C-alpha cells in the first residue's frame, strides 16, 4: 500500500498484541512492510493474517529474545528474505510486579535479559545496516515507571530506565544525519498485560486518581507518535522522550 513509509521495512518486537501490534498496524497503514515479531507463533501469525487481509504488507518473525543468539538469527533470516529493517521498534519486554524486598532471582534475570541484554543484541544486529544505508529509526517503548515507579515495579522500572539510557546515548553519539533514536513512554494503557492488574478490586480507581486526564490510554495512542518519529515530518526529532500517559508522570 502506498504511503509515507512506502519502501521501508519496520521490525516491531513483541508485536502480536497490545502496543506492539498497534504500532505495527499504523506503520503498515503508512506503507511500510511490518514484520510482526513475537515468540507466540499462533498470535503472531494471526496478527500477520489480519494485516494482510486489509491489504497491508506484513510477515511473521518468530524468535525468543531470551536466547542470546536470537537477534543474529533474526537478522540472517530477514536478510535472506530481502526484508532488512530500517525501522526497529523495541516493544518486547518482561514486566514482573515485585517490591524491593521480594524481587526474585528468576524475575531479575528475565527482566534484565529481555529489557536490557536483548536490546543491545538487537541494536548490534540491525543498527549497522541502517548506518550503512543512511536511514534508520530506532524507537524504544519505555514506561512511565521510569519517572514515577510503583513500589511493585522496583526492578522493572530500573531496567526500562537503563534501556532509555542506551537509546539516549546512541541519539547523542551516532551522528548519522538520518538515523534517529527516540523513546515513547506509555502510561496506563489498557492492554492484555494491564487488564489483569486493573481488574483487581479498587486498582483501576487508584490508577485513575494518578492520571490528570482521568482515563486510561489505548494502544493506538502510542501508534501515532511512532508514525511521526518514523516519518519525514519527524526526521529532526532525535533523543526525545515522549510521554503518552495522560500526565501520569507529573
TrEMBL record:
Q: Which InterPro entries match?
A: NAD(P)-bd_dom_sf, SDR, SDR_fam
**PANTHER family recorded:** 3-OXOACYL-(ACYL-CARRIER-PROTEIN) REDUCTASE (PTHR42879)
- Protein family membership: Belongs to the short-chain dehydrogenases/reductases (SDR) family.
Q: What is this protein called?
A: NAD(P)-dependent dehydrogenase, short-chain alcohol dehydrogenase family
Lineage start: Bacteria, Pseudomonadati, Pseudomonadota, Alphaproteobacteria, Hyphomicrobiales
Amino acid at each position: 500500500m502506498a504511503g509515507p513509509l512506502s519502501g521501508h521495512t519496520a521490525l516491531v518486537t513483541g508485536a502480536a498484541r497490545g502496543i506492539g501490534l498497534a504500532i505495527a498496524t499504523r506503520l503498515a497503514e503508512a506503507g511500510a512492510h511490518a514484520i510482526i515479531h513475537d515468540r507466540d507463533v499462533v498470535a503472531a501469525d494471526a496478527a500477520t493474517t489480519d494485516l494482510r487481509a486489509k491489504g497491508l504488507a506484513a510477515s511473521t518473525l518468530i524468535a525468543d529474545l531470551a536466547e542470546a543468539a536470537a537477534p543474529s538469527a533474526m537478522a540472517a533470516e530477514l536478510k535472506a528474505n530481502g526484508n532488512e529493517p530500517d525501522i526497529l521498534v523495541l516493544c518486547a519486554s518482561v514486566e514482573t510486579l515485585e517490591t524491593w524486598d521480594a524481587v526474585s532471582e528468576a524475575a531479575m534475570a528475565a527482566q534484565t535479559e529481555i529489557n536490557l541484554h536483548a536490546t543491545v543484541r538487537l541494536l548490534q544486529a540491525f543498527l549497522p545496516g541502517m548506518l550503512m544505508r543512511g536511514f534508520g529509526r530506532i524507537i524504544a517503548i519505555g514506561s512511565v515507571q521510569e519517572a514515577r515507579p510503583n513500589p511493585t515495579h522496583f526492578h522493572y522500572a530500573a531496567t526500562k530506565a537503563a534501556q532509555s539510557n542506551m537509546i539516549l546515548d546512541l541519539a547523542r553519539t551516532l551522528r548519522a544525519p538520518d538515523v534517529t533514536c527516540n523513546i515513547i513512554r506509555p502510561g496506563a494503557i489498557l492492554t492484555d498485560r494491564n487488564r489483569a492488574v486493573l481488574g483487581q478490586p479498587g486498582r483501576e480507581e487508584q490508577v485513575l486518581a494518578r492520571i490528570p486526564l482521568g482515563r486510561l490510554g489505548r494502544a493506538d495512542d502510542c501508534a501515532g507518535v511512532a508514525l511521526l518519529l518514523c516519518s519525514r515530518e519527524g526526521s529532526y526529532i532525535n533523543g526525545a522522550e515522549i510521554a503518552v500517559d495522560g500526565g501520569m508522570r507529573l
